[in-house]
Structure formats: C-alpha cells, structure tokens
# Entry
Amino acid sequence: MAGHRKAILARTVVIGALALGLAACGRTEMSEYPLDALSPNGPIAEELDRLWQIVFPIAVGVFVLVEGLILIAVLKFRDRGDGDLPHQVEGNTRLEILWTIIPAVILAGIAVPTVGTIFELSEAPAKEERVEVEVVGKQFFWQFEYVNEGFFTANEMVVPTDTPVYLHLEGDPVYKGPDGREIQEASDLVLHSFWVPRLAGKTDFVPGADRYMTLQASQEGTYLGNCAEFCGLSHANMRIRVRAVSQQEYEEWVAQQAKPAASPPEGPAARGEEIFGANCVTCHAVKGHPDNVGQRTGPDLTHFNSRTRFAGAIFDVEDTQQLRAWIRNPPAEKPGAQMPPFGPDQISQGELDALIQYLHTLD
Amino acid sequence: MATDTESAAPGAGTNFGVPNEKMGMWAFLGSECLFFGAFISVYVLYLGGTGDGPGPAIFDIPFTSVSTFVLLMSSLAMVMALAAIQDGDMRRFRTWTLGTALMGLTFLSGQVYEYTVFVEEGMGLTTSAFSTAFFVLTSFHGVHVSIGVLMLGALWFMSFTGRIDTSQRSQTAVENIGLYWHFVDIIWILIFTVVYLIPVDLLT
Amino acid sequence: MTAVADTPSKGLLSRPGASSGWTSWLTTVDHKKIGIMYFAAALIFFLVGGLEALLMRAQLSTANASVLSADAYNQLFTMHGLTMIFFAIMPMSAAFFNYLLPLMIGARDVAFPRLNALSLWVFIAAGIFLYSSWLFGGAPDTTWVNYAPVQEVGPDPAGLTLGGDHDQRMLFYSLGLQIAGIASLASAINLIVTVLNMRAPGLTFMRMPVFVWMSLVVQFLILFAMPVIGVALWQLMFDVGFDGNFFRVDAGGQPILWQHLFWLFGHPEVYILILPAFGIVSEILPTFARKPLFGYAAIVFSGIAIGFMGWGVWAHHMFTSGLGPVANAAFGLSTMFIAVPTGIKIFNWVGTMWGGRMRFSPPMLFAIGLVAMFTIGGLSGVTHAVVPSDAQQHDTYYVVAHFHYVLFGGAIFGLFAGVYYWFPKAFGKFLNDRLGKTHFWLQLIGFNLAFGPQHVLGLNGMPRRYYTYPSGMGWDMWNMVSTIGAFIIALSVLIFVVNLVKSVRSGEQADADPWDARTIEWLSASPPPPHNYDEVPVVTSRDEAWHRKYAGGGGEVPRPVPAGASADHAEHGEEHHGEHIHMPDPSYWPLILAAGLPLAAWGVVTGLWALSGIGLGIVLLSAFGWAMEPESEPEPHAESEHA
Ligand code: HEA
Ligand code: HEA
Ligand code: CUA
Ligand SMILES: [Cu+2]
# Structure
C-alpha cells in the first residue's frame, strides 16, 4: 500500500514540476528568439508585459494552491479499507464565503491595473512626435504607406528608435495614381492582424473600418512579426519585419524611398524595364517607371531591392533563383499567392533574366 | 404517459400542472424570440447601409397596415377556433380554423405583392446590405406564417379524419398551435413597428 | 381513444413492430437506446476529429514540413474544431442527458420520445452532410469561427491554387451547422420539459442531482444560444448562396457583425460544453469519496450564475478587433469575474474529497483529473481576460493551450469519467479496471505533453492556424513534444476503445448499485428495464439512494440500514409490475424526417432545386405522418394500471 502511495506521489510531483518548468521556460530561456512576446523591447510592449508580470504569478499561486490541495486530499483521504464511513459533512458556510470573497478580491486587484492600461494604451501619441504609417493587409502581404513622406513599401518597414510609430490600419484605402486620378482598392479585402510581439500587441486589420495602434522600439535592430488573424491559404506566409534604426539613418532611408526609381541605362536591365511595363505594371506600382499607373494589387516595387525579403517576407531578395521561380509560378512557391504565373510562352528565359536584373536595380 | 393526460385534466401528473406540449411550445417560443431579436437588430444596424439602392422611404405604409390588420384579425379568429373546440362544436371549429388560415394566406399574398413592387422599383435581395436585411427578416417571418398556415390546414384536415376531435388532447394541440399563431402575430407587430412605422432617424 | 383496439395504426405507415434486432434501434423512441446511439455516434466523430488532429500534429511536428498542403491543413483544423465541438462533445453530453435524466428524475422516458429520436437522427444527418463536403470537392476551410469576410472572399480569391468553388464549402458549413442546431434545439426543448414537469414525487428542485441541474442550465443555454448562431448561419447562406450583402463591405455590410453574432452564441457554447462535465464530476466525487457533495447549494447556484454570466462576456474573443477601450474594459472585467463562480465549484469539489475515504476507480481518477486540469485552463483564461496582455496572446498557441485544457482537460476528462461510472448501469457490466487506469494515466501524460508546451509556443510568438512555420523561432522542440503527446493521447483512446469493445462483450458483471452510489438511477436494475422503474421511487431527500441504504447524516458517521431497498425493487418488479407498464411505441417518422433535411441541403449546395424540393417534401410529409400517428398504440384495458 505504502509503495503504491509513493508511486502516486512521485507521478503527481513529476507532472506538477513539468507544468511549472514549462511556465518557467516561457520566461527565461526563450528570450533569444525573435518573436518572444515575453521579451519586450519598447515601451508599449513593456506595458503589456507589466500586466503579465502581475497576473502570471497570481495564476501560478492559485495553481499551486489548488493542485496542492488536491494532492494532499488524494494522499490523505484515500480508502484504506479499514473502519467506518467518513463523517457526512454537507458543507460549510464560512468556507463558502471565504472562497467567494478571496478570489473576488484578487480579481479586483488584477482588474484595476488592467483597466488603467487599457485606457492608457488607447491614447494616440502626440502628432508632432510620431511617425505615421498607413497599413493595409492584403492576401498575403502587408503594404505600408508613409503618408507624410509620400511613399509606399511592403512587408518591411523602417522606423526610428525611441519614436512612437502610429499605425493606421486603413480598411478602405484609396490611392492617387500618377495622373492624380483616384484608385479604389479592390473590395475583397479580408481580416488580418498586425503583430510584432516585441514592439506591441496585435491589432486587427478590418475591411471597411479604421483601426489604430502604436508601436515603438527602444533598440536598433530587426524585429519580426506575423499576421495573426486567419486570412487564407498563406496566412502562415505573411510576415512582417520592422527595422529600427537611428534617427539619422531613418532620415536617409526616407530620403531614398521618396525618390522615384531611375530608369536603367542601356543593357539587359533597360530591357527588363520594358518587359515590366508590358506585364507587371497592371498590378505593381513602380514610381518613375514610364508606364506606371499606380495600381496596387501587388506590392509597390519602386525600391524592391532595398528590402531584404519578398513575398510576405519569406524569401530572400538576393536569391535570384528564388525570384526566378517566383515569377514563373507564384502559387507554387507560396500557396494562394494572388499573382499569376508567367510561363516561358509569356516571358522567355532571356527576358526573365533581364526582368530580374531590372528588379535588382530598384534600390 | 400519453394516455395519462388524455383522461385527466390538462397537465395532470406533471410537476407544474401545465401539459408537456404546452410547456414545450413556450420553450420553443422563447428560443424564437432570440431568433427574431437578432434579425431585427441586424436590420436596425443596417438601416444606413443602403448603398446606391432605395432606403426605407420605399415602404408603402397604408398597404402594409391593411395586411397587418388582416393578420391581427386572424389572431381573433384563432381565439374563436379554440373556444369552439373547447365547447365541443367541431363545425364552428372548422370554420374558424379555415378562416384563420385564409387570413394568414391573405397576409402572405400581400407580402409577395409587396416584394414584387420593391423589386420593380429597384430594391432586390442583393441591392444593398439594407435590402438584404429587410428581405431576409420579413421573409423569415413569412416562412413562420406559412408554417402556421400549414399547421392550421392540417388541423382542419385532421378534424375530418378523427385525429382532431373534442378530446383534451386535441384541445391542447389546438391551443398550442394557437400560441404559435399569436406569437407570430405579435412578432409581426414588432417588425411592422420597427421596419415601417418608426422614422429611421429615431433608430440610427 | 375511440379506436378499435386491434387496429395497429391509423397513420400513414404501419407501425414498426420489432422491439429487438438492429431495426429496432432505427425506430426506437426509448431514451436509453437513443442515449447509447448518441454515444456511439459521438465516439465515432471524436475518433475522426482526433484523427484530423493527429494529421495536423504530424504536419506541425517539424519546421517547414510537407505532410499536408496549406489547403488540406486548413480544412483539417476547421473540421477538427467543428467536429470536436458540434459532433463529439455536444452529442456525447446529449448521450448522458438522454440516458440519465429520465432515470435520475424517476421518469419513464422524456417528455417527447419521438422528438428525442428526431434529435438523434438529425444530428447524425448533419454530421453526414458536413462530412459529405469532401465528396464535393472540399470541406469548410476558413476556421471553425469562420470570420467574415474571408468566408465570402475565400482563402484564395484568384483561384490560382485552389480553383474550385469556395462558396460551396461555406454552404456546407452554414447548412451543416444549421441542421445540427435543429437537433440541439429540439432536444433542449424536450429535456427542459422533462426536467421541469416529470420529476418523481418528492423530487424538489433542491433535491435534484447536480448533474440534472447542470443539464437543465445547459438546455436553457442551448435554447437561447442556438437561434443566435442560426441567424448568423442564415446570413452566411444568403450571402454565399444568393448574393446577399450581410457581410459585404462594398454593399454596406459589416464584417464585425459576424463576430458579435458568432461569439454571442460561442461563449455560452463553451459553457454548454463544460457544464455537463461539471455535473458528472459532482456525482462521481461524492460517490467515491463516500460523503455528500460539499456545498450542494453553492455548486448549483454557481452553475446557474455561470449560465447567466456567460451571456455577458462574448467580446473577450474580440479584444484585438478594435471595439474601443470602454467595451474592452467592460468585457475584460465581466470575463474575469466568471472565475469566482467557477472557483466556488473547484473549491467545493476539493471540499468533497477532503475528509472522505476515496476509492480510486477509473471514474474517480478521471473526475479528479478534471478538477486538476480544468483549473489550469481556467487560469490561462483569466490571463486572457487581462485585455492588454491578451493583445499578445490572442490567436496564438497560448489560446490553443487554454481551450484544450478546458475542453479536453475539462469536458473530455469529465465525459470519460461519466462513461466509466455509468457504463455498469447501461450494460450491467464493468469496464475493465486495469485498462481504465492505464487509459487514464496515459491520457493524463499525453494530454499535458500535447498541450502544456503550447503555452510556451504561444508566448513565444507562434500564431494559430499556421500550416507551416520557419525554424529558429524556438518552436521546433516544443512542437515535436506536442506531437508526441498527441500520439500518446491517441494510444490512450485506442485502449479505451478496446476496453469498450471487450467489456460490452465480456465485462465483469455489475449489479444494480455497483459503486454504492447516492442517486436514484442506481435503484433501478442494471441495465434498467424499458420503463426504467417498476414503481417510481418517492424521493424524500437529496442522495435518496444513499439514504435508503444508510441511516444518519449531517456530520454523523452513517451505518447501513438492514434491508437495502435497491436490488429488492428491481427483482420483484420484473415479476409483478413490469409487463403492464405501457411505453410509447417505436416510429419510423423521426428517421424519415431527419433524412429529408440533408437532401434539401444537398439541393442548395448543388443548385439542384428539385432535390431541395424532394427533401422539404419528405420533411413536411413526415411531419404530417407524425402528427397523424398517436404516440402510442391504444392497448386493451389501457386505463387501469397507472399508479
Ligand atoms: C469548455 C470551454 C471553455 C471554458 C470553460 C472557458 C473558460 C474561460 N475562458 Fe475560454 N475559450 C474557450 C473555451 C472555454 N473557455 C475556447 C474554445 C476559446 C477559443 C475559441 C477560438 O478562438 O477558437 C476560448 C478563448 C478564450 C478567450 C479569448 C482568447 C483570445 O482569443 O484572445 C478568453 C479571453 O478572455 C477566454 C477566457 C476564459 C475565462 C476567463 C474562462 C473562465 O470561465 C475560467 C474560470 C476558471 C478558473 C479561473 C479556474 C478555477 C478558479 C479558481 C480556482 C478560483 C481562483 C481563481 C482566481 C483568483 C484567478 N477564453
Ligand atoms: C472539444 C474539443 C477539442 C478536442 C477534444 C480537441 C483535441 C485535440 N486537438 Fe484541437 N481544437 C479544437 C477543439 C478540440 N481539440 C478547436 C475548437 C480548435 C480550433 C479550430 C480552429 O482554429 O478553427 C482546435 C485546434 C487545434 C489545433 C490548432 C490548429 C491551428 O490553429 O493551426 C491543434 C494543434 O495542435 C489541435 C490539436 C488537438 C489534439 C492533438 C487533440 C487530441 O486531444 C486528439 C486526441 C486524439 C484522438 C482522439 C485520436 C484517436 C484516434 C485514433 C486512436 C485512431 C483511430 C481512428 C479511426 C478509426 C477513425 N487542435
Ligand atoms: Cu494575413 Cu493572416
Ligand atoms: Cu469565451
């Protein structure tokens, strides 16, 4: 009997330790990983983490209490096959009141900072301090428009450190074409959610509505993010990169991005520019391209080569092989991609090389 | 169990003294309240969502008031039918039952007519969020009326085959269908008020 | 009735006669047979849903795996969620409601036996219909919550990868759940009336077993929640099937509306899933601790409170959708405070165990498992309720961990406890004890391995509903552990199935009251006769059966009463009373009516309106045939033998 009891004790302890161990791992070991929500790197994410620091220990405390009581009961009050039935206790009013009030008080304690933080975070940063970016989630990439600076980019955004970046998730976007004509975004947008764990919590992109969020980075570096609301076949391939840089570097970047793309001089790249005009401008805007119509079905490619990743930030821009495969058959490289394949009958092998050379001139 | 309720008073042998069938009907109607409540809320939410299509101005209030009145009167007829079967007068019961059903049919024809007018005037199911909400709400009510008419027809028919007679059991059945009928009627009053009568700016 | 006694029927079809053999199961209106069929069907769906989970876990076991395509993965997790919630746990709970409620309240059957059969067949029809989508080119694939507008736009609007007609998949979703909803609604009405109106003499509300109480609360939740999702599903059908505009942004529709309607249903739904399990453990803990439930009234009232509060928290699923700070704060608070009534239950269960003399048979192990595991899920729920913090957790594996801890660690553990507990009642045989214990320990370990690491994954940034993930995020190892855990669960479930099959055939015999239990269903024979009780027991106290066996309560040490009433009754009954009790007769109509619904729905999906017409015709005709058919055939001298 005693041996059996020890066995049960051992098993239970192992399970309890496992659960606690897992919880502990969540905090410490992981911080080297780029998407760790528990390693905030900016004031907004730190606010969220502060609440977690309050509620998590409380949860662990209640966990230990409840599981401990169960454990003791199981060990102490087992039927040993001797003696009578136990006392037939029906309840205890005092205990009843106690275990109603105490949790209520604990919860009230969690509620106060929660509500405070909700309202605090709902305030927009002051207009003169912030960088404003209009964000549109599409199947399956993120489009960023630096409204005041007047340019577009995709998948990767650059922000200055220690500056609040105010994101406007614009569910009903309208663009100005190069000729000043208004271009309406196609009406088949779906939900997405913008999430860069180390810089802020997530906010849904809602078609037809406006949503706002703020993020801010304290250190220079690249912060990764993901789309966090199911949006279709490549929901898993809709990543985000936020590069936080010094104020000066940021200004240089802005100056560069605001420039139109230069037409390449003679050579294959110039040929590529033509091929691009014949096949691609119907979906991709390239400011400065002679045929540009400002259509934004696909990502803005004006400074394609200044980015490190493409197609929802899953592939390397440098990887010519990958880029070739992409243009040949996007849905094969990324399920559900909304760009049609361009087979050899549309774009020959030589033309494809020229096209890719052109893309690589778009710094 | 079933035979229990036949001989004794309605609801005898139950804890609440209400026949099971009747309690079941009440529960069902409780559920229906949420059904219609949700549809009506969606309609109110979409009052502004008319897009390029016509809005609530399209409604012909006098016409619909008349068909509403007919439906209201059918509830009265239903009451008469129940009273008749409780008095044991099957002939009178048949007349009133048929009358109730016919008034229901009249209401339905009014609804069909109204729909065709709206469609002619450029408001179809697919015109706008508003039009979809309107058609789906009112046609759901229409389906409820139709089911009521079918049940009344069945009552009428079964009163000839002997399945419906003056027994306690039959009376409970008639009472239940009456409850359903009155409910559908009341819901229409609500829909009529919200959709047709209350000015749009009061709701938005 | 004026009819001549020897006319078998006045209906459209002659009455089914057989009372044994497999056909008798198709036409039965006996709540016990219906309960067993509910269980069998739910178990099959559970295995299928589990199989889908195993495939998903295989895909997720390593980074960049290619076991499944994105499309296959999306269909599998959508169908997994739908299957587990609507076709495994809900009907498994329904199995218990059906089998036990009449027995526990001392009734001979439910209020509307044919309606009960209808619920069963409609539920099965809904499941067959939903799964038939795979024969039509694809199952629903835009998550079990199916948010607008991706449900209408589709996961691949250009169709370069999928081709096919996505709207069709959505019609399967809409109509499949709609049909399943009809089944739940019908059974809710039936059971509400049964519990309110058909209790045995003396069985007042405050003497009702907690399982009956929790079932009653659940029926009310179903009654009011089903129409809400019904409305959303109709709207979806009109949008995808008939070009309606409920959720179309360009026509003035609002996608967020879907979320409100879905969760206004969806949150009460999660309590629909858990409260039956709470009821089950509230029966099992006292029996095996051999003392009364601690704080009966507190447990009952907290259950009711949970039922009410469950209606005021739905937007906690929408904290990141931009409701604004006021709504977020309000829903955050209301959500947190649901922990209070739930905590009351947990502490009272511990109080029940405390000071008892516990026997650790499989039902007890699973019941304790629920208390221990559900608590973990509940606590992570409270961390979700901290709104700003949920902005990090939402739609990550941390949420997946939360709801598997409450659903699997709560509902499934509770339902398994119930199976082990009442199996002897239903079959007169025990489930094998050794296999049962193995099942428990394997399941406990597998479960924690499968879902424990998902907490870490989520906090570590892994979003849900990802068919693939890159390496180097700290996710690789934990995903592998989780997959291993899932397969250990599968092994444990396999052991359970083996146990079930073996024990039905040749289990150890059980008598009427094998656990020395407390509630009146144990007064009836095992398995109970068709009419449940020869003489309906008169109830004089809570834990009636116990009090007939033991004298002395209220803090005293009880002693056995010389002549136990239980076995006695059943044995004599068989000889003296049994054959006179007149039960409702079997009927074809529920089965036929149920068959009409999926036909009508297939018609809508395929655009073959004639098929819809036939389906609806069958429904109407069988409704009429049903109305023409008396609940039971008149019997000679039917008047005299009711006591
Ligand atoms: C059985 C089903 C079930 C149950 C019972 C619960 C119970 C709870 N749930 Fe859960 N939940 C789900 C099923 C369930 N949930 C599902 C399926 C989803 C995801 C749906 C989807 O998106 O697909 C979900 C998602 C979900 C979310 C949304 C997360 C997100 O997507 O961002 C939230 C947010 O608040 C939440 C909260 C809670 C809370 C506070 C409880 C509480 O009821 C828990 C209360 C219990 C306890 C707290 C433990 C016992 C209490 C004590 C021991 C007392 C002392 C405690 C304290 C002082 C803290 N749940
Ligand atoms: C009651 C509900 C319930 C239950 C019991 C389970 C059980 C399991 N779930 Fe479930 N799960 C949900 C409800 C449930 N789930 C819901 C609602 C979702 C959300 C869906 C969505 O996002 O839309 C979800 C999502 C979900 C995901 C996230 C998918 C994603 O976001 O990408 C994962 C991933 O690991 C998962 C895993 C599992 C596993 C491993 C089990 C295991 O417990 C399964 C145990 C295994 C078995 C039971 C197998 C037994 C089978 C055999 C032994 C083989 C024999 C088979 C035949 C003969 C057919 N589930
Ligand atoms: Cu975009 Cu998920
Ligand atoms: Cu919820």
Chain A touches chain C through 103 residues (CB under 8 Å). Residues 29-68+98-246 of chain A form a domain with the Immunoglobulin-like fold (CATH 2.60.40.420). Residues 25-30 of chain A have pLDDT under 50 and may be disordered.
